[in-house]
Specification:
The chain has 2 domains: 4-199, no CATH class; 239-352, no CATH class. The chain has 14 helices and 7 strands. The protein has helices at residues 4-18, 55-60, 76-100, 104-113, 119-128, 160-169, 174-178, 196-199, 201-217, 221-236, 240-247, 284-290, 297-302, 349-352, and strands spanning 132-133, 139-140, 182-187, 190-195, 254-260, 275-282, 324-331. The two termini are 20 Å apart.
Length: 358
């Protein structure tokens, strides 16, 4: 998640990198839209009169820190590719924003149009991707509404029992309803699963194009393959092959995690994956320091303080250990460690392929 200042900064960096660092250009702001599974005949008035009294202190706790990254070892085209990837991450940020709360766009408009509102409320709203304070138990810092467990992934008035009853009565719907990559909506009095590729098409189509453009600029074939397959997944809604291709990325100076991964935003069932993006560059010097551990991975696994039956002792330990510098993020909270696929991934990919340590 990013504040408006951070988003603007990311776009400025992307614009500069897209030109190989040689000229500043203006990048367009991401297209805003609405992707909300509303409840039955829902009418809500956005009231922002209720406000916390310490917004300045809350913003101050999340003070920005300048982190310098050495990109001198990248080629001009690789720097341009980074710019494309950062632009894609900004689009992913908008998808996540629409996943978290069904009234986010209405709140954003009300906050932007308020004339007597401290601008720090707008900044904190963008940081938190909504009116709820994620580091204060999801209590509202503006407005008086409570955060629903449905986020914006199910109809806001839907109960857990309603979905379970529907799946029992319509077993053919169960797979789509439990999919990590669908949103549940009401249509004609029925519950319907709509693929992410349709719900978030406004952002996924331009993001896919940016990934394809970045692939052309990248010199690493395995990264090219992943970017193209992930772009295809944005349209097909099938992420399995691109997950495999992500695991096969090797020896690339640029490391990218982008797509729907973690399921923490789905507080009702834990089915639906939230979008996130981590655009990183390998730190060669720091990565080299960790190579001493490469020869001891099996020994470290064998000596983990856990029951022997719970240990995963592999025949081969080929996964590289690398340190990366984060250039840009989007979506799911940025404190997630870069490149860590979570419960939102399709089952099978990690078991069938080697893993990556980032």
């Amino acid at each position: 998640m990013k504040s408006m200042k951070q988003t603007a900064a990311a776009l400025a960096i992307a614009a500069t990198l897209a030109c190989g660092g040689e000229c500043p250009v203006c990048a367009e702001q991401p297209v805003e839209g609405t992707a909300a599974p509303r409840g039955k005949d829902e009418t809500v008035t956005i009231d922002i009169a209720s406000r916390c009294g310490d917004i300045g202190e809350r913003v101050a706790k999340l003070a920005p820190v300048e982190m310098k990254v050495d990109l001198s070892f990248l080629s001009r085209n690789e720097k341009r590719a980074l710019g494309k990837l950062i632009e894609a991450a900004v689009l992913i940020d908008e998808i996540f924003f629409n996943q978290t709360y069904h009234l986010n766009n209405e709140f954003r408009a009300a906050i932007r149009n308020a004339k007597d509102l401290d601008p720090k409320f707008a900044e904190y709203f963008e940081i938190m991707a909504g009116p709820f304070d994620r580091i204060d138990g999801d209590r509202p810092f503006i407005g008086s509404l409570s955060r629903p467990k449905t986020s914006n992934l199910y109809p806001v008035d839907m109960t857990r029992e309603e979905l379970e009853t529907w799946m029992k009565a319509h077993p053919a719907d169960e797979q789509a309803f439990k999919s990590n990559f669908t949103v549940i909506v009401r249509k004609g009095g029925k519950l319907v699963a709509v693929p992410y590729s349709e719900v978030y098409k406004t952002w996924l189509e331009p993001a896919a194009e940016l990934l394809r453009e970045a692939a052309v600029l990248c010199g690493n074939d395995s990264l090219k393959k992943f970017l193209r397959s992930r772009a295809a997944a944005f349209a097909s809604n099938d992420y399995y092959q691109s997950d495999i291709d992500w695991m096969d990325v090797a020896d690339s100076p640029i490391d990218v995690t982008i797509g729907p991964y973690e399921v923490y935003e789905d507080r009702m069932f834990g089915y639906k994956a939230a979008f996130e993006a981590f655009i990183t560059v390998v730190n060669p010097e720091e990565s080299k320091k960790l190579q001493v551990y490469q020869n001891y991975l099996k020994e470290l696994d064998e000596n983990l303080p856990m029951p022997a039956g719970a240990k995963w002792i592999r025949d081969r330990y080929e996964s590289p250990i690398r340190v990366v510098d984060v250039i840009g993020t989007g979506g799911q909270p940025a404190e997630r460690r870069a490149g860590a696929p979570g419960e939102g991934q399709q089952a099978g990919s990690a078991e069938e392929h080697h893993d990556r340590q980032v």
